[in-house]
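[step 3/7] fold_predict: job queued, chain A
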Amino acid sequence: MPDKKGRTIYFSRAPSQNSQTSIENHPENQDSNHKEFDKLTKNPNEQISISGIEDKKQDKIRTINSIIAEEEKQLKIIQTLIQKQSKSLERAKQLLREKQSLLQTEFDRKASRFSDSEKFSLVGELSSKMAHDIRNPLSVIKIQVDLLKLRYSTQEDKILLDSLGRMERAVGGITNQLDDVLHFLKERPLQFENNSILKILEESLFYIEKPENITVELPTNDITILCDGNRMQRMFTNIILNSIQAMKNNGVITIRAFEQNNDMLIEIKDTGPGIKDEYLPKIFEPLFTTKTGGTGLGLSICKKIIDEHNGFITVKNNPTTFTVAIPKTQS
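[step 4/7] structure written:
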């Protein structure tokens, strides 16, 4: 193309050298772009990092689900064991009731033909058979309950632990009834020692599962009594349990201890409804009971123990008060 002076000017379609120069003059931009590209193409490990994290997360979820499934399996096994032991316990309780009924029937049938000593001998023979038949399944149940409590003592499953506790108390209740029968018939010499009445009472309470709504007020003073401590502890346990049951697990038991003439007296008073007047003359008789499932020997054992100590025991109403008197000295 000619200009005004007649010169010819040519235009080239090739890229300008200035463009190449521009790129060469800014190598850092080029390097930056290369680096970003390298990150995406030359480091495959970083490319799969997100999927790897997701895989690990899924592995943890599967592990947790597996643990939960195993725990649920173990819980079902425990529930099955509890159901089996509960059925065994019910069978043992039914067997106890049947044996008691047979014992009472046989005793009533033959009682009129024997003296007191012969009556006790008859009861002893029948009760020994009863104890043998019942103690074996009770021992099995008790061992199983202890093992379950030991294994799961740190668990927070309140329903499970409460169930095991109820089973343990039920086994203990049947065992105590058997012990009442055998203790009533067992003869052994007394071991007289000077004992703190407060200590004996505290030991008695240790063996009692006291309901929350029951309050036991111990004597504010202490007296020393010459007695067989183990027998007296058994006697107080029976009377306190009798009061708890009479009050239907809600009330106050007040115990006083004091001296009167040549005797040491202990009064046990409760806020229960009292004893029917027609029952008062019979309350210390062997096998007399107004409670379902009772042996009728608890208060009889109390009287037997006090008789062995050359003392006496009485009961009165309004309020219900048991009074135990033990001589200060023993011949």
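[step 5/7] annotate
Residues 52-185 form one domain.
Residues 11-28, 43-48 have pLDDT under 50 and may be disordered.
exit 0
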